[in-house]
């Protein structure tokens, strides 16, 4: 396993609670849209065993041509040891990244794509949307639906409806409106539905989509293949 040590190049305050850490691209480090990585803080590998409290599984919110590895995360006032350390890091400080992989690259199957996310989960979809804007081949259109109760919606400069690009962005701040919108989107029985958020959020979305007749193979989760069965297990009793 290769560990890439790199420096924080810039810190962007996206909203009062959300920051993006832009990291220098180490030589030989590559990724594609929909990628996640293990993001680790200094001292994580100082002992005999990795200090897991200093490692987090994070989505990369940028594309390679942006020449920076973007890590976008929510940091609340009361937060974990990891987030407390991260909150105090500055430009020039070192962090590590390793085990980078994409579970949700953009599928080009001549279908409509629906991106369903909660809060900062939208960071996973930012690179997919940028990739689509650059090359729309074999994607009919994309619709993004994001729920964020804080009302501080992310990346609104990118996630804005554009008729010429066949892209629509929808933001809601409550569960009722969100799941009503999911049901409406699921009227497209041939669409591809990407879902990013907490495990509970994934399960609830899958239940709603399956009730509307959407098949498991049409639902993409940012999870390893061996983790997928637990999210679709309730299908066994249907």
UniProtKB/TrEMBL annotation:
GO MF entries: oxidoreductase activity
Residue ranges constituting the FAD-binding FR-type domain according to the UniProt record: 1-107
Superkingdom per UniProt: Bacteria
Name of the protein in its database record: Dihydropteridine reductase
């Amino acid at each position: 396993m290769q560990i890439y040590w790199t420096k924080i190049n810039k810190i962007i305050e996206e909203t009062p609670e959300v920051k993006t850490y832009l990291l220098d691209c180490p030589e030989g480090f590559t990724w594609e849209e929909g990628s996640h990585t293990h993001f680790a803080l200094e001292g994580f590998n100082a002992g005999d065993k990795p200090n897991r409290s200093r490692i987090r599984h994070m989505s990369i919110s940028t594309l390679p041509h942006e020449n920076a590895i973007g890590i976008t995360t929510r940091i609340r006032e009361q937060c974990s040891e990891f987030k407390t350390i991260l909150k105090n890091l500055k430009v020039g400080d070192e962090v590590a990244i390793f085990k980078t992989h994409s579970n949700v690259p953009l599928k080009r199957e001549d279908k409509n794509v629906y991106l369903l996310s909660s809060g900062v989960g939208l960071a996973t979809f930012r690179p997919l949307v940028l990739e689509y804007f650059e090359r729309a081949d074999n994607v009919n259109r994309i619709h993004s639906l994001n729920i964020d109760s804080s009302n501080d919606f992310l990346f609104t400069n990118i996630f804005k409806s554009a008729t010429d690009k066949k892209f629509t962005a929808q933001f809601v701040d409550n569960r009722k409106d969100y799941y009503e919108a999911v049901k409406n989107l699921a009227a497209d029985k041939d669409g591809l539905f990407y879902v990013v958020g907490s495990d509970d959020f994934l399960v609830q979305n899958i239940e709603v989509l399956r009730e509307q007749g959407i098949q498991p193979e049409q639902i993409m989760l940012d999870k390893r293949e061996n983790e997928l069965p637990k999210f679709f297990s309730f299908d066994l009793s249907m």
